[in-house]
Amino acid sequence: MSAPAFNPAAYTAQLADKANRLRELLAPFAAPELEIFDSPREYYRLRAEFRLWREDGQRHYAMFDGDKRTPVFIEEFPIASQRINALMPRLKAAWQASDALSFKLFQVEFLTTLAGDALITLCYHRPLDDAWHAAASALAAELNVSLIGRARGQRVVIGRDYAEETLTVAGRSFRYRQPEGAFTQPNGEVCQKMLNWAYEVMGERDDDLLELYCGNGNFTLPLASRARRALATEISKSSVNAALHNLADNGISNTTLVRLSAEELTQALNGVRPFRRLAGVDLPSYEFGTVFVDPPRAGMDDDTCRLVQRFPRILYISCNPETLAQNLALLSETHQVTRAALFDQFPYTHHMESGVLLERR
C-alpha cells in the first residue's frame, strides 16, 4: 500500500478539482448539475493494510512511496478510523513482547466498522503452531477484536471471520456482515451518503428491481425495500453467503439472490443457455422497472450495457469515472442522465465514486 498524501488544508480544492473532472466527463451526456457529497477530513477509512519492515531488531508498520525498497514507517495513520489508530500501537507492543506473535510476521490488515467492530488479520511466512494460537487468543481478548492468522495453507480464526456493521438509511438501521477478504466500502460515512442518495433516487416503486454485482448486499438491503420484488446477482461465493445472511438478518423477504456473473445473467435473459443456479426462479414473471449496477473498475462490457438498456431506469454507481463515461456513450443512445452525484470515498487521491440515474428517452 502506498503512503497517502494527507493534507486537510488542501481538501476543499482537491474536491473541487474532482467535481470539475467529473463534470467534463459527463458533459457530452447533458448531465444535470452534480450533487456533491464530501468526506470527513480525517479518520474516515475503515480498512487499512500495512507491510511490516524489520529494522534494529523490531518490526514497524510500513508503507511505500514509489520505491518498494524504501519504507515509510507509520506510527499513526490519520486517514484510518479512530479504532484502527487506537489498535495500532497496542498490536505493535504485543508482537514486540511475543516471539510467538512476531516470528516471520510480514503483514497486518485491519477491518473496522462505524458500529465499532474490529477484525485483524496477521500474515506469516511460517506455520502457525499452538504457541501462536495461545498468544493470539490472549491478544484478541485483550484488544476485544476478532483475529485471523494466515500462513501458507492455513487460516486460523479466533472469534469471527467477519466484522459487523450498522448503516442508517432514511432513518432505518441495516445490519451487515462483512467477511474478511471480501470487498466492502472503505469510507463508512460516505457509504451512508451513497446509500441514502440511491434510496432517494430509486423512489417508491410498484415494479421490480434487478441488481448486478450486489456484493454483500450493501445497496440491496435498502433498495429492495423500495421495490415490489428484487432479483440480485453476485459471483463471489463469500459475498453471496454474506448477502444471504444480511437479507435474512434484516427481515428482507422480497429478494432472490443468485450466484451469477453479469455476463451469465445476460446469457440467461437472452435465452442463450440455462443455468441450474436459476432453477426455481421464474425470470419471465419479473417486471423490472429499475436495474441497479455497481460494477468493478473496468465498468460493464458491451453485452451487459445492451442488457440494462432494456429497462426504463438505470441506477449506476461507479468507482471509475472514465469507464462510466465509456458506458454512458452506449447507454445514452436510449437513456438520458437525469441525476448525477460525486461521492468522495477517497480523499487526497485522484479516485472518486460517482452515481448517475438514467431514464429511457
Summarize the structure.
The chain has helices at residues 11-26, 82-96, 99-102, 130-143, 188-202, 220-224, 237-249, 262-269, 302-308, 321-331, and strands spanning 35-37, 47-55, 58-64, 71-73, 105-112, 118-124, 146-151, 154-158, 162-169, 172-179, 208-212, 230-233, 255-258, 288-293, 313-318, 335-343, 353-360. The protein is α/β, with parallel strands linked by helices and 361 residues long.
Describe this structure in words.
- It is a single chain.
- The protein has 2 domains: 8-41 and 187-360, Vaccinia Virus protein VP39 (Rossmann fold); 47-163, OB fold (Dihydrolipoamide Acetyltransferase, E2P), CATH 2.40.50.
- Helices cover 30% and strands 29% of the residues.
- It has helices spanning 11-26, 82-96, 99-102, 130-143, 188-202, 220-224, 237-249, 262-269, 302-308, 321-331; strands at 35-37, 47-55, 58-64, 71-73, 105-112, 118-124, 146-151, 154-158, 162-169, 172-179, 208-212, 230-233, 255-258, 288-293, 313-318, 335-343, 353-360.
- The protein has 10 helices and 17 strands.
- An 8-stranded mixed beta sheet has the order 1-16-17-15-14-11-12-13, sandwiched between helices. Strands 4-3-2-5-6-7-8 form a 7-stranded mixed beta sheet, with helices on one face.
- By secondary structure, it is of the alpha/beta class.
- The model has no long low-confidence stretch (mean pLDDT 94).
- α4 links the parallel β6 and β7 (146-151).
- It is an enzyme of class 2 (transferase).
- It catalyses: uridine(54) in tRNA + S-adenosyl-L-methionine = 5-methyluridine(54) in tRNA + S-adenosyl-L-homocysteine + H(+); uridine(341) in tmRNA + S-adenosyl-L-methionine = 5-methyluridine(341) in tmRNA + S-adenosyl-L-homocysteine + H(+).
- One of its GO terms (cellular component) is cytosol.
- One of its GO terms (molecular function) is tRNA binding.
- S-adenosyl-L-methionine binds at residues 185, 213, 218, 234, 294.
